[in-house]
Structures are given as C-alpha cells and as structure tokens.
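Intended use. Records like the one below are meant for learning the mapping from a protein sequence to its folded structure. Do not use them to infer anything beyond what is encoded.
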Amino acid sequence: MYTLPLFISGAEIAFIMFILVMVFGADKIPDIARGLGKGMKAIRNASNDIKNEIQKSAEKQGIDTDFTKDVRGEIDKVKEDIEEITGSVKRNP
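Structure written out for the chain above:
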C-alpha cells in the first residue's frame, strides 16, 4: 500500500483543528467546511470547463490531444526500469 508523504503530522492537524474550534466556534465549522466544499467544486468545474474548451479548440485546429497515452507509456517504462534496477535492493514491507 502506498501512502502519500504528508508534511503535517497527526498532532499538528489536531492542533490546527483545536485552534479552528477556538477561533470560529464549534457551530460555525460545518458552515465553513460546506462553503469550502462548494468553492472547491466550483473551481473543479471551472477547470474542467477550461480543459474541455482547450481540447475542443485543439481538435478544431487539428492538433493531436491524445498525448496522455504517450506520457503514461513513458512513465510506465521508467517505473519498469526503476523496478529492474532496485529489484534486488528493495525492502520487504
């Protein structure tokens, strides 16, 4: 199982949550979280719209937009090369 490296530990997150409760109060935090969620959804929708418009424009101009398969293939090749090199050095979890 892969874990993402976080630069904030559990104790630091708990401290931040404590400060948030002290500053805003327990009754305001759900409203703040709801507002943040709506804001993140709006940003995601806007970025998807921009991406779709760019892709449509590129297709109208005859530009190949299917470069993600090429990039993914190159990433897979690099992963295989790394696994070949580190295969004998790799630690067992």
